[in-house]
Amino acid sequence: MSGSARYLLSRAGQAALVLWAAFTAGYVLLQLLPGDAILIKFQNPELGLSPEQIAEIRSYYGTDGPGAYLHTLLGFLRGDFGYSIDTGTPVAERLAEGLPATAKLAGAAFALAVLIAVAVAFASCHTRLSRLRGALQAVPSLFVSVPAFWLGIVLIQVFSFRLRLVPVIGGSELQQLLLPVLTLAVPISAPIAQILARSLDQVRTQPFVPVVAAKGASPGWILWRHVARNALPPTLTVAGLTFGELIAGSVVTETVFGRNGVGRLTEQAVNAQDTPVLLAVVVLAATVFVLVNLVVDLLYPVLDPRLRRAVA
Amino acid sequence: MRPGLILSWALIVLVALWALVPGVFTGYDPIAGIPAEKLRAPGPGHLFGTDAVGRDLFARVVHGAVNSLSGAFVAVAVGLVLGTLLGLVAGSVRGALDEIVMRVVDVLLSVPGLLLALTVIILLGPGTVNVAVAVGVGSVASFARLARSEVVRVRRTDYVEAAFGSGGRFAAVLWRHVLPNSLVPVVALAALQFGVAILAISTLGFLGYGAEPPTPEWGLLISEGRNYLATAWWLTTLPGTVVVAVVLAASRISRSIGREDG
Question: Residue ranges of the ABC transmembrane type-1 domain (chain A) (predicted)?
Fold first, then answer.
């Protein structure tokens, strides 16, 4: 087997192991629940269910017996996440309902976050005014310090109630998406901007930069062809790490803006102690996170020829 | 010290005083309102204005400091103690145990902090202490990873080898030499996590898992102000500004720890 195939396999194996462990940890934790949701829902005396009937319901939901863990695990592998205790519908169905809206929100937010980060980082590296530079360098730490839920509220206040640019209810889809996307993008842009600015600064002090300049390259050419290219890998790593935050951030964003999606589903699941739904969301978040970071790892040798040799 | 750092310390001290002796800063009651003075805009009488039942918002923010700060302390303590312990053991014992602990850390890091906190809350139920513990559990992984890398670095130094060579017991050397010399970056992370915890606790408070109304918790204050967005901007804007300022100050202090120039 060639070196790169072995590298690929071992990285994929590690990713699978982390996912299995995340599932198991979530499963075990949520099984510990003292007053579990089935009891809360069905032990109500008004329903008049006998203990035998409750046991039957338990086996229907697959939460009982020694084979329950294996049953649930195999179900997850097939895309069957069990049944929501709150509504009785399949969890996979509820996830599928929310996923498109959340994917649209998160995708747009990620794109905007990258845009903001690139703008802030390049501006802070490019400007000669030290005061402006200092202000731009402080932007990322300001962005991570802002509570997302509060930012959303302030945006609604300013753009919907003061300036009346975005209607509170109704409006086109783009208008509805605008403020939530901005709310989700701001905290996520911060770490990307921080690392990009730091890597740009580091790369610029390396000896090959004056050499290229001495050969007659223009500042723009140096920045894009040489400096930015070398600053990309660490930035890509951090951008990959923000994917988990996109899903967590959608919980807050969707709640503030009253949008339906996976985030809203999560919030409702926690309120209703609907453990199967929460387990599915946690595993989904971990899967997205692990897969994106696997792709980033595998992209590294593509971006950096030096690593290609090291791997092969 | 630079002016920004002095300002950050001043703000943290001020908020700590709000938590310890709130009565010094405001004469108003945070729970009982004066109905005749409801929904007043910020002004000389009411610095932050009043809410729909005539409660002074500044008094509620000042009295709320104790909830947010003690919650953040508990969260950081949980993360710091558990994380450092895990990292210390993993980094000094190495071998299979190290592998297992670090894989667990990988798993924890692959689940976003808020989802991890929500998992803990679904387990323990809502409430201020549970929210603090949930946020703390979310930060165990980063503490463990940092502590381990520091311990591995210190473990290889000559003075630790010398301590072992001169007959020091394993636990004693860990306690006397490895732990103290690994601690500076961990303390810097703790300062940063303090701000992160305030942010997370206010988020969970906003979602309704923390303190019960009418307790003046910062996230809950902002949540309650949502019904008056069109008429009373101060109810959401001002408490949020306080949260942002405290979190910024904590991260500024965190960056200065372990650096000579601050």
Answer: 99-300
| H/E segment holding residue A294 | helix A275-303
Q: Is B122 on the interface with A (CB under 8 A)?
A: yes
Residue that the structure tokens 């019960």 belong to: B212
Whether the CB-CB separation of A273 and B122 falls below 8 Å is answered with yes
Task: Compare CB distances from A282 to B115, B222, B229 and report the shortest one's residue.
Answer: B115
Q: Cβ of B247 and A145 within 8 Å?
A: yes
Rounded to two decimals, what is the model's pTM?
0.86
Among A22-36, A90-104, A113-127, B132-146, name the one with the lowest average pLDDT: A22-36
Residue A304: is its pLDDT beyond 80?
no
Q: For A29, name the nearest residue in chain B, comparing CA atoms only.
A: B123
Could you tell me which residues are beta bridge partners of residue B50? B56
Q: Is the pLDDT of residue B191 over 60?
A: yes
Please give the average per-residue pLDDT across A27-31, as a whole number. 78
What pLDDT band is residue A48 in, cutting at 50, 70 and 90? low
Q: Selecting from 1.10.10.60, 1.25.40.10, 3.40.50.300, 1.10.3720.10, what CATH number does the domain A106-272 have?
A: 1.10.3720.10
Chain mean pLDDT for chain A? 83
Q: How many CB pairs below 8 Å do chains A and B form together?
A: 129
Asked if B111 lies within 8 A of A282 by C-beta distance, the reply is yes
Alpha helices in A83-227 (DSSP H): 91-126, 130-145, 148-155, 173-204, 208-214, 219-221
Pair B140, B146: CB distance under 8 Å? no
Q: Is the pLDDT of residue A269 over 60?
A: yes
Tell me: pLDDT of A5 over 60: yes
Half-sphere exposure of A189 (CA within 13 A, CB side): 27
Q: Do B107 and A147 touch (CB under 8 A)?
A: no
Q: Do A149 and B248 touch (CB under 8 A)?
A: no
How near does any CA of chain B get to the CA of A76, in Å? 17
**Residues from chain B contacting residue A269 (CB–CB below 8 Å):** 122
Q: Chain A residue with minimal CA distance to B231?
A: A161
Contact A273 B248 (CB under 8 A): no
Per the structure block, which two tokens stand in for B8? 């950050």
Of A1-10, A288-297, B160-169, the least confident: A1-10
Distance, in angstroms, between B201 CA and closest chain A CA? 10
DSSP code of residue A83: B
User: What confidence score (pLDDT) does residue B262 get?
Assistant: 46
CB nearest to B115's CB, from A33, A271, A281: A281
Mutate to test the interface with B, among A179, A270, A297 (most CBs of B within 10 A): A270
User: To which residue do tokens 């805009």 refer?
Assistant: B41
Asked if residue B198 lies in contact with residue B208, where contact means CB atoms within 8 angstroms, the answer is: no
For residue B16, how many other CB atoms are within 10 A of its CB?
Answer: 13
What does the pLDDT read at residue A225?
81
pLDDT score of A18 = 86
Structural domains of chain B ordered from first start? 3-29+45-256 (1.10.3720.10)
Please name the residues between 240 and 259 in chain B that touch chain A, using a CB distance below 8 Å: 240, 243-244, 247-248, 251-252
